[in-house]
Amino acid sequence: EAGVAQSPRYKIIEKRQSVAFWCNPISGHATLYWYQQILGQGPKLLIQFQNNGVVDDSQLPKDRFSAERLKGVDSTLKIQPAKLEDSAVYLCASSPQGIYGYTFGSGTRLTVV
Amino acid sequence: AQSVSQHNHHVILSEAASLELGCNYSYGGTVNLFWYVQYPGQHLQLLLKYFSGDPLVKGIKGFEAEFIKSKFSFNLRKPSVQWSDTAEYFCAVKSQGGKLIFGQGTELSVKP
Q1: A77, A78, B28, B50: which one has the fewest Cβ atoms less than 10 Å from its Cβ?
Q2: Which of A41, A55, A102 has its CB closest to that of B100?
Q3: Which of B5, B1, B69, B60 is nearest to B36 (CA)?
Q4: Does the beta-carbon distance from B103 to A107 stay under 8 Å?
Q5: Is the pLDDT of residue A80 over 90?
Q6: Contact, A104 vs A93, CB < 8 A?
Q7: Picking from A28-32, A89-93, A107-111, B38-42, which range would have the lowest pLDDT averaged per residue?
Q8: What are the Cα distances from residue B112, in Å, to B9, B19, B44, B82, B84?
Q9: pLDDT tens digits, one per residue of A12-70
Q10: pLDDT at A82
């Protein structure tokens, strides 16, 4: 089966600019996750969707980060405006509902200068 | 709150040496535990997982892990490492809501 697709692979922006990342999960996977992985740390959950509803966004910095999952399939994560500390790899993962089957995408490496 | 702690930040071994990476979690209920590997430039891959049953779990590429409930530990082991095992290793626990809580990772460097 096709994996979790993410784009772009790399992005360099200046602070205060905006950026968006895209994720296409595995077909049929109801749950979609966005994780942030800062260099030297483990991934940290930003937001979890079940179909197109938000399940957990407790660690999403909502003053600058937003995410949506229209029609319960693809998802976009946006940062506006970006800060230097947002430099990280943004990972998307998906899993079937009620079953463990986490699959991670390759991630988008964001550098904010 | 659930948390995961990995004892070693960076481990350096020679080929054929034995490996043990420590992982401790904080959660008193039923746990689902995982080890992931991230090779340079690649995405996270599942090495092995524990849900229930035999506490000694065997994964891919010769890795295994032992769940010791009394010690809240889930250490990763491999009897003989290869240069190709050079990667970063993450221990994780799954929360009731489904999200994974990761440790900070251990970077393994294997010298040929």
Answers
A1: B28
A2: A102
A3: B60
A4: no
A5: yes
A6: yes
A7: B38-42
A8: 21, 15, 24, 8, 9
A9: 999 999 999 999 999 989 999 999 999 888 999 999 999 889 999 999 999 999 999 98
A10: 97
Residue appearing with tokens 């998802």: A75
Mutate to test the interface with A, among B32, B36, B100 (most CBs of A within 10 A): B100
User: Interior CA angle at B20 toward B19 and B25, to 5°?
Assistant: 155
Give the pLDDT confidence of B31-57 residue by residue, as tens digits. Answer: 899 999 999 888 889 999 999 899 999
User: Chain A partners of B94 at a C-beta cutoff of 8 Å?
Assistant: 100
CA proximity to A107, closest of A46, A52, A62, A29: A46
Write phi, then psi, for A84 (nearest 5 degrees).
-55, -40
Of B32, B46, B103, the CB nearest to A42: B103
Counting residues of chain B whose pLDDT is more than 90, the rounded percentage is: 75
| pLDDT at residue B29 greater than cutoff 80 | no
For residue B4, list chain A residues with Cβ-Cβ distance below 8 A.
42
C-alpha neighbours within 13 Å on the C-beta side of residue A20: 7
CB contact under 8 A, B104 and A55: no
Give pLDDT, residue A102: 83
Distance from CA of A93 to the nearest CA of B (A): 10
Decide if B97 and A105 are in contact by the 8 Å CB cutoff.
no
